[in-house]
Specification:
The chain is α+β, with helices and mostly antiparallel strands and about 900 residues long. The chain folds into five domains: about 60 residues, no CATH class; about 190 residues, no CATH class; about 220 residues, no CATH class; about 170 residues, no CATH class; about 180 residues, no CATH class. Helix content is about 50%, strand content about 15%. The chain contains 27 helices and 27 strands. The strands form five sheets. Strands 16, 17, 18, 19, 20, 21, 22 and 23 form an eight-stranded mixed β-sheet that branches. Strands 5, 6, 7, 8, 9, 10 and 11 form a seven-stranded mixed β-sheet that branches. Helix 5 crosses helix 14. The model has no long low-confidence stretch (mean pLDDT about 85).
Length: about 900
């Protein structure tokens, strides 16, 4: 019989059995027709048992035996799972939640860290990272350098590797028509030879070549991504030749990238690519704006390439340092101090990777712990069921069933639970992963990750399903395989062994749950401390409008707009600044006071207009605010931290400081006219830094007023929702000065929230998994305690009959489970303190080993144990001894 026929017969079931029975019956009729006595013919076929053997032999000859047995086991397991709907549903839901979370975490990790770039030889792609120290001796790491360094490095390793410069992808304002139709797009400057080096093909038109990116002869060409072409232009082939403007520069679209290429920064897909040389200020060696990608050629050694690159880098930097005549010699000793480290960039390189690497590791650890708790819970349920079915299994063995056949039945049931959980978990992961991505993005810059399924995600799902099946199904299968039929039929088989296994499982669950609660508490405390941290200003009701103009305007024009905004009825106050606090932008410089050498700690600068301190609600502790006639770099207002750092905490009003002016320039001598409270400058996680506020009105060495091309209008509204008035204020600005365009609108509260995205994500997900872990632990405690009471019902009934009180019964029932939970908690204390060291970089103002952080999870587990025990205790003290003894 063919393989296909035997395969089909597996699923024919009863029909096949009827055909075999009919075939045997036909043989009997043939014998009778041949003249044999009917009784003799039936005896020749054997008795009923032998006829049944004939039928089974015929059945086995017509089917794939192993598949038929598997089908039978599946049907039996399906009936058993349906018979216990509550237990089955609880097991599937708990496992699905944990497995779905694991799947979602892996999808994020795969998209961010594992998925190789769709380029030629991604394993040969590296990024040059610089590891060094600051002037203050603190470790520093960065991966950007100047155009000059990139060109020199490329020439030094020609023939061994290709060196490419890639700008950090960022949002730009551009327009395809009038200035009023300005829109924002993610733009990235890249070396012209990047596309051919990566083997990227055009979907339309052509891509850059090296000729498009030559120094001082750059062509005004642009290439757009496939996603941008689809979303912005609806795949219009006439997009080729269209032009757009960025500031005063006009660019023409010459091509569209193929769909699979989504850039080199996981988390951000550029909309527009421009040649590196389209960016200005290429000759400034100190302008570190390019990430250096190195694609190794066959046979080349990465260490040799790195050494050649560092040699030319060091030479250029040492030559540059010769002109830093105003810096103290100790600052320049051993300069440059940094080294070049080559890191693999086959999966891309981005700031999102470095920012969320530790956070994703921490979340993955939480998820694995929850998965183990869920597996232990389901394992306990399976073990309890296996013990309760001991007599059934013993009877099957007595009737001839093999032990491994019974073990296989249990294993199939476990596999069905795992598969059902995996299917449901996959649906949960499909929702959860994009949800997390949306949460870690900002309104202006959403995170974009390629989440399509590949062999890695599919393989992970299969391995996870197998792991879950083994972790909770294997103990039950082994216990069934070692069953002793005689003891089981007497009712004494494996009771103590099964109880011990469940108790060990509960201790492990409690320990793991403690760790989950402990980490979730650390993340929650970190968020509370950051949100409660004083910023030094009031972010509520602050609307921020970014104004830009092609032709820089004098300060008087910008001040007129501020006055016009202040006259609006819904506006409380308005002012101007160079950029918002907590926007990520920064400028620093070394300063000296009282003729002393430059201080090693740099000051941070921001340029603001008159009334800005009042608009931001920054408290002026001494001196005065800026006036219209004040100008940079003549006067400044400083923070208390500045006074503490450079004036030993003394009142600096009326005193002077000087800027570093490192390259043979006369130092600016600046008078301090005001002192403010400390303000949070760039990052909400930072301690208070020395901050200098300079007037927005700037003058050059000849005392000529400098026009400005950009400014941030900070408007404090009277209403609680400042964005509601944004459009009206935008019209006011454009009616006052049509040449100034509003390119971006946000609020100061949004900037503060964006600073805490990681902490909010960790707190929300950590809290969610903590609740899940606690519920699973309670279910596990309840299940084991309930099973224990079931096993001891006769004993408890006798004790009650002999006069045991409710307190006695409660102590007898709960003493062991509380001891197990306490042991698990003690183990969890050690695990929690050890795990806290690995997440310390994610914390703020919280010490992982603090007693309060360790005490709270212990109390939560104690309460959970009490709640889980309560219904079982009530059931135990209500046992009727008469009924129990009669039943015995």
């Amino acid at each position: 019989m063919s393989f296909l026929s035997r395969l089909v017969n597996v699923f024919r079931g009863e029909r096949l059995n009827r055909e075999i029975a009919e075939e045997l019956e036909s043989h009997l009729h043939e014998a009778v027709e041949a003249g044999r006595d009917p009784q003799e013919a039936r005896r020749a076929l054997g008795n009923a048992f032998q006829q049944r053997q004939h039928q089974e032999t015929g059945h086995d000859a017509r089917v794939l035996v192993w598949l038929d047995l598997l089908r039978a086991d599946i049907l039996f397991a399906w009936r058993h799972l349906l018979k216990h709907k509550v237990v089955t549903s609880a097991a599937i839901l708990s496992l699905a939640l944990a497995m779905g979370a694991c799947g979602a975490a892996f999808r994020l990790v795969n998209a961010l860290f594992i998925r190789p770039l769709p380029i030629t030889n991604p394993s040969q792609l590296f990024v040059a990272r610089f590891d060094g120290v600051t002037f203050q001796g603190e470790p520093a790491h960065w991966d950007s350098t100047s155009y000059v360094h990139m060109i020199n490095m490329r020439a030094a390793v020609k023939g061994q590797a290709e060196v490419m410069g890639v700008e950090y992808a960022q949002r730009y304002d551009l327009t395809y028509g009038s200035d009023q139709a300005m829109e924002r797009a993610t733009l990235q400057h890249i070396s012209g030879w990047l596309f051919p080096s990566f083997g990227v093909k055009p979907a339309l038109g052509r891509l850059f070549t090296e000729d498009d990116d030559r120094y001082k002869s750059s062509k005004p060409y642009a290439v757009i991504s496939y996603q941008y072409w689809k979303n912005r232009f609806g795949r219009d082939p006439n997009v080729l030749g269209r032009s757009f403007r960025i500031n005063n520069d006009l660019f023409q679209i010459i091509g569209v990238c193929e769909e699979k290429f989504t850039g080199t920064e996981p988390g951000m897909i550029p909309d527009v690519y421009l040649p590196v040389t389209a960016q200005g200020n290429l000759d400034d060696v100190g302008n570190g704006w390019l990430r250096i990608l190195v694609q190794l050629k066959p046979g080349a050694n990465i260490d040799a390439v790195r050494d050649r690159m560092y040699a030319v880098y060091r030479t250029v930097e040492q030559e540059r340092a010769k002109h830093w005549t105003n810096l103290p010699k100790e600052f320049l000793a051993g300069y440059p101090r940094e080294k070049i480290v080559m890191q693999s960039a086959g999966s891309g390189v981005s700031e999102l990777q470095s920012e969320y690497r530790t956070a994703l590791i921490a979340l993955s650890a939480l998820i694995v712990l929850v998965l183990l708790i869920a597996c232990a819970n389901v394992g306990n349920l399976m073990s309890a069921q296996a013990v309760s079915r001991a007599k059934e299994f013993a009877l099957r063995i007595s009737l001839g069933a093999g032990r491994w056949r019974l073990a296989r039945m249990v294993a199939v049931e476990s596999a069905m639970l795992a598969i059902a959980s995996a299917v449901l978990g996959t649906a949960f992961a499909a929702w959860a992963a994009p949800f997390v991505i949306r949460e870690i993005g900002t309104r202006d810059q959403p995170v974009q990750l390629i989440m399509t399924a590949d062999w890695r995600t599919i393989g992970f799902g299969l391995v996870l399903t197998l792991f879950v099946t083994l972790i909770f199904g294997l103990p039950s299968a082994l216990s069934v395989s070692s069953l002793k039929p005689l003891s089981a039929l007497k009712g004494s088989e494996n009771v103590h062994t099964g109880r011990l296994r469940m108790h060990l499982s509960i201790a492990a669950q409690t320990a793991l749950c403690f760790v989950v609660l402990f980490l979730a508490g650390l993340f929650t405390s970190t968020l509370e401390r950051l949100t409660g941290k004083s910023l030094g200003y009031a972010p509520d009701r602050l609307l921020l409008l970014t104004g830009t103009t092609q032709h820089p305007q004098p300060p008087s024009v910008w001040n007129q707009i501020v006055e016009r905004l202040q006259s609006e009825p819904d506006v409380e106050s308005a002012s101007l600044s160079s950029w918002p606090l907590l926007s990520g932008r920064t400028e620093n410089d070394l300063v000296s006071t009282n003729g002393n050498p430059l201080d090693k700690v740099p000051a941070r600068f921001v340029w603001v207009g008159p009334g800005w301190l009042n608009t931001m609600k920054v408290t002026l502790q001494g001196g005065r605010d800026f006036r219209i006639q004040d100008a940079s770099p003549k006067v400044a207002i400083v923070s208390r931290q500045f006074a503490k750092q450079y004036f030993n905490g003394a009142n600096p009003v009326g005193k002077f400081f000087e800027l570093a002016a490192v390259v043979n320039q006369k130092r600016d001598r600046i008078e301090i006219i005001g002192l403010t409270d400390d303000v949070t400058y760039k990052d909400a996680h930072d301690s208070m830094l020395p901050v200098v506020f300079m007037p927005m009105r700037r003058v050059d060495e000849k005392n000529q007023i400098q026009p400005a091309g950009e400014g941030i209008f900070s408007v404090r509204m009277k209403s609680a929702n400042p964005l509601a008035q944004a459009s009206a204020l935008q019209r006011v600005i454009q009616s006052e000065e049509p040449s100034i365009r509003i390119s971006n609108i946000t609020t100061q509260e949004d900037l503060v929230r964006d600073q805490l995205i990681r902490e909010r994500m960790l707190t929300a997900l950590g809290g969610f998994f903590a609740i899940v872990a606690l519920l699973l632990a309670m279910i596990g405690l309840y299940g084991v305690l309930n099973y224990s009471v079931q096993q001891r019902e006769r004993e408890i009934g006798i004790r009650i009959a002999l006069g045991a009180t409710a307190v006695n019964i409660t102590r007898i029932v709960t003493a062991q489970i509380f001891a197990i939970a306490a042991a698990g908690t003690l183990i969890g204390l050690g695990l929690g303190e050890a795990s806290g060291k690995y997440v310390q970089t994610l914390l703020y103002g919280v010490r992982a080993g603090a007693p309060s952080m360790l005490l709270l999870p212990a109390i939560a587990l104690l309460l959970a144990t009490a709640l889980a025990a309560l219904p079982v205790v009530l059931r135990a003290i209500r046992i009727d001894p008469v009924t129990m003894l009669r039943a015995d």
